[in-house]
């Protein structure tokens, strides 16, 4: 009898593989909205992560030949430390994250992870080492359990629940009509910005990467949700090399180092206290935000960029 079912099994498997491929592609394009422009060099070895140090060495980059976006960026993030990138809108903050994930190759200079040029190792191995908590998470039209479990192929239900607890979303999931089996996404239950962000965090916890990119949401969350999410993010970035693309100042104060980017150039760097003392662009942005907080009675929602 099993002979009879084997072709059917195979068909099912092919179907699932194709479906997964389509979902992955959809996720890829929606999440990052960039075409695949990078190919591996023949015989490229995989990245070997030892401690997770990240270094940008004189990185020059433009999306189009006529326009340079990053004009010689030097950044080093020691293993396990947190670097925040701030600066006006269009300065190139998100571009830094896209280059680290190797959606594009740099025009000149190098990006190194533990001393290895990411352009010389396989893309897959670079992406395996990095978790992204994006600004605006796109959910798959599937169950919430699937959406969390996507962080690691073959994750068990217990592991999924563990990750959900880590992201403070487990209790919320249990309160849904069908728990982890509840369908979400465009054709299912719509989740709020904060809930989606927690799904992204749970997914990242499952993936357990040594390097983390936090692309802070530009849209405002209410300050209680924001504070709760900050706490979880602080927790998951503690043991990981973290780069925070900050559109607001809320995560920045605690960072080990802040770089201020303006028109593709690092114009200031230091800790929050050092940058306030330097009384430059960062201090100006900080004061402006403080004033906005006062006049508008806003919490952490103030937009930096
Ligand atoms: P914001 O705070 O507004 O998100 P940012 O500092 O993150 O801004 P980037 O998204 O890195 O800025 O964009 C830097 C510059 O690169 C912008 O001028 C933008 O128009 C340009 N840019 C971004 N993505 C592309 C792309 N895919 N193709 C061409 N130009 C792009």
Beta-strand segment tally: 10
Bound molecules: adenosine-5'-triphosphate
Q: Give the number of helices.
A: 10
Q: What is the H-and-E element order?
A: HEEEHEEHEHHHHEHEEEHH
User: SS-based structural class?
Assistant: alpha/beta
Strand content range? 15-25%
Percent in helix: 25-40%
Mean pLDDT: 84
Strand order of the largest sheet: 6-7-8-3-9-10
Largest sheet: 6 strands, mixed
Morphology call: globular
Short key terms for the protein model shown above:
single chain; 305 residues; alpha/beta; six-stranded mixed β-sheet; 10 helices; 10 strands; 40% helix; 18% strand; binds adenosine-5'-triphosphate
Tell me what you see in this structure.
The protein is an alpha/beta fold. 40% of the residues lie in helices and 18% in strands. It has helices at 2-32, 93-100, 123-129, 144-149, 157-166, 170-175, 193-207, 223-237, 272-278, 281-296, and strands at residues 54-61, 70-77, 82-86, 108-113, 116-117, 130-133, 211-215, 241-245, 257-262, 265-270. The strands form two sheets. It has a six-stranded mixed β-sheet with strand order 6-7-8-3-9-10. Strand 9 (257-262) and strand 10 form a beta hairpin. Helix 5 crosses helix 7 (193-207) and helix 7 (193-207) packs parallel to helix 8 (223-237). The longest helix is centred in the first third of the chain and has 31 residues, at 2-32. The termini are far apart. Residues 298-305 have low confidence and may be disordered. Keywords: ATP-binding, Membrane, Nucleotide-binding, Transmembrane, Transmembrane helix, Transport. GO terms for molecular function: ABC-type transporter activity; ATP binding; ATP hydrolysis activity.
